[in-house]
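F.,

This is the one I mentioned.
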């Protein structure tokens, strides 16, 4: 069959223009991105446009090249709430904050605008792209030194992170918000079969939470462990003959030594170099599932020593522990010791040590903090702490204060 001349022209035209269809951007990651594009046209020269927001799993058509235009196309992308992005080696001007279209983007003269800056763009030859789609995958992000979004990690046979692909024995998927793991975390065998599923209180240190399950390669359950504050409460395992074994934890109440502290008045600290603040390290025993601190304060040293005799958290906890392996304790069940004069007690991480002592702004845990109290009992449970500290502060301008404090931990072992 002969092809007529005009048909040949149409076929040639279609083949020629196929590679110049719209350029599509697809966000294959778990964080929102903002894309800027750059291209060269005969009449306007270099032009940049942006920022185009693209949500996770969304795609957008951002550019249609002219039929006889340049095949060269450039782009860059920033990531929502992140100091990272996708950049290349070609410098073009953008407005770093607002929506923009900039002509002569390789040599823009608007130097008086502090928002007009050069960003490094990535080059992409349009006719070499698969379906003219550019995929951007903002995963495994560390933004402002904190893990964010979805992470996929290769691990070796010991469960440590493997840098080389040949060392991978299984891989892990976790989602983060500000370094805190959220939702279900899952491990997979190399063929994609589920190996384990669990929730975490924290990633560093690695602390399991709730009911966590591990599976054999054939998909059958290997073991199931119930966790609280990173410690096992019960474990159910299946052995080769199909027998199921269940173990339950035993609880123990552990008292740490009582701390006696004297704090100067704030005026004494200011004029004479005294200390109106003090910090107590929290060294919890291994296996702690929850803990308490009990304190009393008074200007009188003798009164504090007398009040300490009425510390009773450890005794009350011991009587509340169900020997069958269940613990039912509420802060409302406890009788607080007496106190005479007020102070502030804060719970915070060690990274805020200096800020607390210097009197500058610091972050603390409200659930573990008591301000302007004479005495009290504070319960800490389901709080992922890395390196906790208790800070005690005397706000009185005139009088110093004596404070006694004791930490009591509930420890579990299977």
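My design for it:
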């Amino acid at each position: 069959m002969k092809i007529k001349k005009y048909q040949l022209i149409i076929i040639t035209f279609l083949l020629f223009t196929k590679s110049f269809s719209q350029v599509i951007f697809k966000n294959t990651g778990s964080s929102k991105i903002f894309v800027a594009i750059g291209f060269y046209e005969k009449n306007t020269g270099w032009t940049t446009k942006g920022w185009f927001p693209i949500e996770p799993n969304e795609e957008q058509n951002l550019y249609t090249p002219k039929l006889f235009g340049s095949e060269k196309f450039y782009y860059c992308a920033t990531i929502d709430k992140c100091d990272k992005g996708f950049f290349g080696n070609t410098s073009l001007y953008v407005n770093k904050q607002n929506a923009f279209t900039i002509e002569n983007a390789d040599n823009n003269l608007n130097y008086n605008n502090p928002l007009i800056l050069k960003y490094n763009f990535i080059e992409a030859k349009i006719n070499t792209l698969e379906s003219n789609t550019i995929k951007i995958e903002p995963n495994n992000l560390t933004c402002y030194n904190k893990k964010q979004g979805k992470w996929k990690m290769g691990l070796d046979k010991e469960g440590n992170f493997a840098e080389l692909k040949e060392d991978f024995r299984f891989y892990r998927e976790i989602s983060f918000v500000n370094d805190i793991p959220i939702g279900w975390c899952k491990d997979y065998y190399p063929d994609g079969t589920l190996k384990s599923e669990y929730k975490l209180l924290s990633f560093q240190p690695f602390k399991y939470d709730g009911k966590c399950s591990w599976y054999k390669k054939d998909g059958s359950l290997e073991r199931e462990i119930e966790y609280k504050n990173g410690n096992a409460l019960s474990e159910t395992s299946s052995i080769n003959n199909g027998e199921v074994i269940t173990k339950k934890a035993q609880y123990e109440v552990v008292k740490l030594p009582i701390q006696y502290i004297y704090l100067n008045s704030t005026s004494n600290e200011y004029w004479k170099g005294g200390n109106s603040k003090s910090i107590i390290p929290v060294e919890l025993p291994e296996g702690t599932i929850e803990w308490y601190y009990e304190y009393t304060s008074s200007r009188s040293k003798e009164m504090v020593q007398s009040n300490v005799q009425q510390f009773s958290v450890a005794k009350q906890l011991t009587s509340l522990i169900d020997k069958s392996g269940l613990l039912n304790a509420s802060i409302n069940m406890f009788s607080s010791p007496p106190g005479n004069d007020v102070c502030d007690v804060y719970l915070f991480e060690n990274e805020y040590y200096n800020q607390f002592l210097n009197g500058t702004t610091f972050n603390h845990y409200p659930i573990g903090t008591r301000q302007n109290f004479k005495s009290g009992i504070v319960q800490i449970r389901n709080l992922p702490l890395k390196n906790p500290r208790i800070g005690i502060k005397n706000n009185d301008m005139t009088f110093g204060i004596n404070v006694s404090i004791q930490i009591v931990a509930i420890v579990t072992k299977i």
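Confidence is low (pLDDT under 50) at residues 6-19.

Talk soon.
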